[in-house]
Amino acid sequence: MSANRAAESLLALSQHEELVDLPEDYPLSASEDEGDSDGERKHQKLLETISSLGGKNRRKLAERSEASLKVSEFNVSSEGSGEKLVLADLLEPVKTSSSLATVKKQLNRVKSKKTVELPLNKEEVERIHREVAFNKTSQVLSKWDPIVLKNRQAEQLVFPMEKEQPAFAPIEHVLSGWKARTPLEQEIFNLLHKNKQPVTDPLLTPVEKASLRAMSLEEAKMRRAELQRARALQSYYEARARREKKIKSKKYHRVMKKAKAKEALKEFEQLQKINPTAALEELEKIEKARMLERMSLKHQNSGKWAKSKAIMAKYDREARQAMQEQLAKNKELTQKLQVASESEEEEGGTEVEELLVPDAMHEAQMNADGPNPWMLRSCTSDAQEAEIQEDPEQLPEPLAHNVSESEGDERLVAEEEILLKEFEEKRSLRKRSELNQDAESVGSQETKDSISREVLFELRTLSQKLKENHQSRKQKASSVGTVPQVQREVPAPEEEEEALLLQRPERVQTLEELEELEKEGCLQNKELPRPVLEGHRLKKNPNNQTDSPKKKKKEQMIDLQNLLTTKSPSVKSLAVPTTIEELEGEAERDQKQMIKEAFAGDDVIRDFLKEKREAVEASKPQDVDLTLPGWGEWGGVGLRPSAKKRRRFLIKAPEGPPRKDKNLPNVIINEKRNIYAAAHQVRVLPYPFTHHRQFERTIQTPIGSTWNTQRAFQKLTTPKIVTKAGHIIKPIKAENVGYRSSSRSDLSVLQRNPKRLSAHHKKQLKKNSID
Amino acid sequence: MKVKMLSRNPDNYVRETKLDLQRVPRNYDPTLHPFEVPREYVRALNATKLERVFAKPFLASLDGHRDGVNCLAKHPKSLATVLSGACDGEQWKMDAPAYGEEEEPLHTILGKTVYTGIDHHWKEAVFATCGQQVDIWDEQRTSPICSMTWGFDSISSVKFNPIETFLLGSCASDRNIVLYDMRQSTPLKKVILDMRTNTICWNPMEAFIFTAANEDYNLYTFDMCALDTPVMVHMDHVSAVLDVDYSPTGKEFVSASFDKSIRIFPVDKSRSREVYHTK
Hints:
The complex is a heterodimer of chains A (about 775) and B (about 280).
Chain A: H1 2-16, H2 25-33, H3 36-53, H4 55-64, H5 67-70, H6 87-91, H7 101-112, H8 122-141, H9 145-153, E1 157-159, H10 171-176, H11 183-194, H12 206-214, H13 217-246, H14 250-274, H15 276-295, H16 304-312, H17 317-334, H18 343-356, H19 359-367, H20 373-379, H21 381-394, H22 396-404, H23 410-436, H24 440-472, H25 476-489, H26 494-507, H27 511-527, H28 529-536, H29 547-598, H30 604-619, E2 624-625, H31 643-649, E3 650-651, H32 675-678, H33 692-700, H34 710-716, E4 721-723, H35 734-737, H36 748-752, H37 754-770
Parallel strand pairs in A: 1-4
Antiparallel strand pairs in A: 2-3
Helix pairs in contact in A: 3-4, 14-15, 16-17, 17-18, 20-21, 21-24, 24-27, 24-28, 25-26
Chain B: H1 36-54, E1 69-74, E2 81-86, E3 91-95, E4 101-102, E5 117-120, E6 126-130, E7 134-138, E8 146-148, E9 155-160, E10 167-172, E11 176-181, E12 186-192, E13 197-202, E14 209-214, E15 218-223, E16 232-235, E17 241-246, E18 252-257, E19 261-266, E20 274-277
Antiparallel strand pairs in B: 1-2, 2-3, 3-4, 5-6, 6-7, 7-8, 9-10, 10-11, 11-12, 13-14, 14-15, 15-16, 17-18, 18-19, 19-20
Protein name (chain A): U3 small nucleolar RNA-associated protein 14 homolog A
InterPro entries (chain A): SSU_processome_Utp14
Subcellular location (chain A): Nucleus, Nucleolus
């Protein structure tokens, strides 16, 4: 029974654990055949062997054995082996004793500490390493993104990208490897050597070095400051001299010169007191200068200028004065230097000088209005008045004289003279008028008269000039040239004159007009004095209102003329094109005729119509005819299927959409897709464009030089990449793009931890050897 | 009177020097130059044809080897120097276009495994070999200073990145492209393609771009930071692509194929721009 049960259990076991190999399978079968007693023992044995095979079963077997037998003081029973033995259980009984408290604390501490986790799988570790390394690397690479993007979008890239900097070497290095070969070079080197110029190490010459050594820093600083100060002073002085030199006043210069002379004299005197020998030398110098002056003809009255002045001296006060000055200078320079105490002599000298001046000059001086009019007037005020009256009266006479003989070259000179005189005259007049202001109550009427007379005369001269213009038929430009002169002469009646001047350039064209103008001038001559008075001085005078309407009238007249003159060109402009049009019309007709003759034979329009009709026919959808000849009736040559049958089997094509060129008689629109053109068309919009219109527009604009200017053509056809022949294009570098290049070497990491690497490497090697 | 005169600025028609081109005044009125599109088309066509007619892509042939030339390298600092190695164990230095001379090795290293590829570092005295693993060697040492593996297949070629010089790319026979970091001495990423990659080449102007010559007749340009999909697939070859090399401008590359042709591809185009072949 038991044996059977055991066998059953064994069977179940063997079924349960297939992998377990059973060598005693055979004896097991044999045991069943033999006796029971023997079987009992054998069974026991079998159980033992089985128990020895699987650990689980053995424990169970142990469980089966009796507990009382096995309990001993040397043996710990394995009862409750399923549970873990906890330290606390062991310590339970010793709870009360305090001596073990420390041990318990330690144990608790141990218990609170977590156990170290199992190290990860090697592959896992490697994967993590790789991931981290990849992240790091991609971060490093991300710095290139903007550069790559920029280079991809660049209009033009020029390679090599980095500027090749010329190798910079200090000149000493260059020179050390260089020798003078040509004779010129040798000569230069010889020179340099002679002067002890540094050749190979050109920093400082020996002299410079010595001077450097001699001077300390503070000294050098002081010296530098001194030099700076001197330079600044010099510049101030120069500026001042320049400014003084620019002063035009003669008087100033004269005074300055005198002051200088005085100063020099003073110095000389001082020198005499202090240092007689030096003073003697100075004296000698002065003497020498005097001698030189005496020898030269510098300040004599023999120069060209002096001669011309002598001629003028009779009439011109200034010239006379200048001459006197020169003579005085001459005297001064040639005079023997005296001691300063004898100043009376000098005064005498001046007297002598005055005596030297020719008599004619004196006379002239007496005649003309003196340099001091006050003096004169105080003497003879009546006489002056007379002069004032005389002056304007005197002048017209030579003028008239001049005008009468206005022919040839002389006339020009005369004109100039007149102008000069007029100028002078006016200036003096103005002066006098100013002077007379206090005496106006007496001579106001007279001055008025004189002024009016003067203006009259001026206007007369103006008209005279115009007449001359008319006679000589000069060019307009020249007349314009003279007019400003006139204008200069007559500052008083400016308003009137301006109006005249402005109108004149346009109108002085024909003879008639000129004559008219002359008349106008005459008219004005009569009327002008009053406006002039009004404009020039007596503006407040209200009794001149009569003049203004006249002015207006004149303006109106001018307007009319302007209108007339402006009309004429417009008429002309109308007239010209009509004739041209006629001509053009004729030409066109001619051309049409010619074209007609040339293409007499071919009728282009009809051909086109025919072509269009064909195109329309071709584009119409075709009917499908499915009739089979001979099917259900006789067939053969000359026989056709019946109309009924044909009608039955004809499939009518649906009418297509209307043609686009239906309403356009002169156009054929082909709506078929042209495969030849399709080859050149793009299927997708190219990259930078966002809309097909943009792309079409850029495609349609021509880029050839026929349609574009040279500059635009070059711009449109610039190559995307430019490379230099014979230059190596190196891979892009971080430092060339502006990034800081990684300073550490690629190898630095490898060499920093060689231990780990070597271990790694050894492992690798071992592996390799195994393989 | 104002006299109207014809006056021209001499600057508009006088040359500054005799070498200057004569200034030809032109009227750019579009009505005077009709049919611009057809005319330009014809011009462009003619220009292209003439360019083809006068193109001389073949410069010279370099003779000297008695066996098949198996590898070729250009000098990084000399334009005219090319190095080549043949199957009979000879190594030649060619001074193009003249004939070359045979070179003697300075240093010999015997390794335990077969080396299938070699590449030199762009800056330092370091080179990398590949075979069963990627080894990094110092020129002065006889043993590698670092070895990196990922998987067990043999690696056919290895290439240094010319810009970020610590990066390496290799292609293995198990259809992989593996990237390595020399500084951290670890592999970074792996791409598995449909077929084996013969070699790769880095773009010398864009640090993270490389192109792989694949057996499936195509070339794949990858962005190193985004390896999921290639940036561009270049097709036109009709047989396995064996080798690829970038132009120094980084805008084009040339590829050699088993179909006995060489093709030039723009980097951003999937079709080749030029093809050269022998009979």
